[in-house]
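Hi Y.,

Following your request, here is the sequence exactly as I used it, all 266 residues.
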Amino acid sequence: MRLKITHTTSYHYDAPVPYALQQLRLRPKSRGHQSVQSWKVTITGGRRQVSFEDEHANNVDLISFDPGGRDIVVQCEGVVEVKDTAGVIGRHTGFVPLWLFQRMTPLTQVGPRVRALLDSLPPAQDDLSRLHGLSAHVLSTVAYDTAQTSAELTAEQVLEAGHGVCQDHAHVFIAAARALGYPARYVSGYLMMDDRVEQTASHAWAEAHVDGLGWVGFDISNGISPDTRYVRVATGLDYLGAAPISGMRYGKGRENMRVMLRVEQQ
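Below is the corresponding structure, written out as tokens. Let me know if you'd prefer a different format.
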């Protein structure tokens, strides 16, 4: 399937911004299951300083704001062809050793609520069944709720709240999978929805490493493994390592951010 994606993030500040830097992880890579046919990132109100690959082999652009500006717009547009591999990404590659993906982070810390989730996990006959069962168990425990807007709640906080969005589901799954002994990572990307073209945010899911298969994706929020509607963009130990846009700025102006996203079949 060929997917056309247009993703625009606009920032407006009510006072001039003297200095700001942002890291963009918005350029997908061609891999075994996806082929980037075209992709363009345009910056208005700033400029690209440098482009590089981070430790997870993500494409990263470092951009600066025009000094004293009040507005900056980051627009991505491209076409990606995706094959269905039943969520299997394959063998581990990149600069980071596989064992690192078993390390807890502050957002994926295992506490009493994650351990209680695992205690109530139904038994399974093999690794893949266990991980699919874990995905379903997380969704049944944490109701999907778009009213939760923070992407930086810990797995323990999400379980305490009992509701969350795709980022929250991914963090709980990753924490639990690591506690079970599986390397696990966070994925940010795009999903073509069946009922709409216009969206207000990109998507997130998780991957776990299974002996004999390699990395396998789990979209906990939708209860499936990624198929031809999904485009992988960046991976990390958690949201902070794979966030589409992150950065810092000086100044006292309040920020107003607006996201416009279209994902459609070409």
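Residues 123 and 206 are 21 Å apart (CA to CA).

Thanks again,
Q.
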